[in-house]
Design brief:
With 178 residues, this protein is an all-alpha fold. The protein has helices at 39-70, 75-101, 107-112, 114-119, 121-132, 139-159.
């Protein structure tokens, strides 16, 4: 992604604020943190857009199938094409859906499935649509990670405040150095 990966209308992050920064989500930027900056409209737009793209893709596949019928390649080829797109779409839906809830455990495996997910792109679009009905796709995962990072940052920050030399252990005196 580019340097400016925040969604339009998202206030720019200042470099002076200490602590962890939220990870931007495609089409949402960092509006998912406080649900501001047109978050609801963005979610509705993403839902409508992904559903429209899935419908358009289905029409495109239908035209491709009609092309196979016109070419008279045979019934077995048509069944194989339908089966291939169905299975690939189901796998792509499942992988995309799981990606919204957890980071992939094996990135190399995800890379090897990229081609399969490309063939089953309708499944990925439908997963995006269904998830955007309840939240920004990937919001729950990123919110959990962000809140955990904030808690860790606050814990580290609170333990470092004050002068460590001024702290005394309970009842023990330091031996004098001679």
């Amino acid at each position: 992604m580019s340097e400016n990966s925040a969604a339009p209308g998202t206030p720019p992050a200042t470099d002076t604020a200490p602590g962890p920064r939220p990870e931007p989500i495609r089409f949402f930027g960092t509006t998912w943190v406080d649900h501001d900056g047109g978050y609801g409209l963005r979610r509705a737009g993403v839902a409508v857009g992904s559903l429209a793209a899935a419908v358009a893709a289905c029409f495109l596949l239908r035209f491709a199938y009609e092309g196979l019928e016109i070419a008279e390649v045979g019934g077995i080829v048509g069944m194989l094409v339908i089966g291939m797109f169905s299975v690939c779409s189901a796998i792509a839906f499942r992988r995309t859906w799981e990606g919204f809830g957890a980071r992939p455990k094996d990135p190399d495996r995800e890379d090897s499935l990229r081609g399969l997910k490309s063939i089953g792109f309708i499944g990925s679009l439908l997963a995006y649509f269904v998830r955007s009905l309840t939240e920004a796709p990937g919001e729950k995962l990123r919110r959990t990670e962000y809140e955990k990072a904030r808690v860790q940052f606050e814990k580290r920050r609170s333990t470092r405040t004050g002068n460590p030399a001024a702290r005394r252990t309970s009842g023990r005196k330091r031996p004098k150095r001679g």
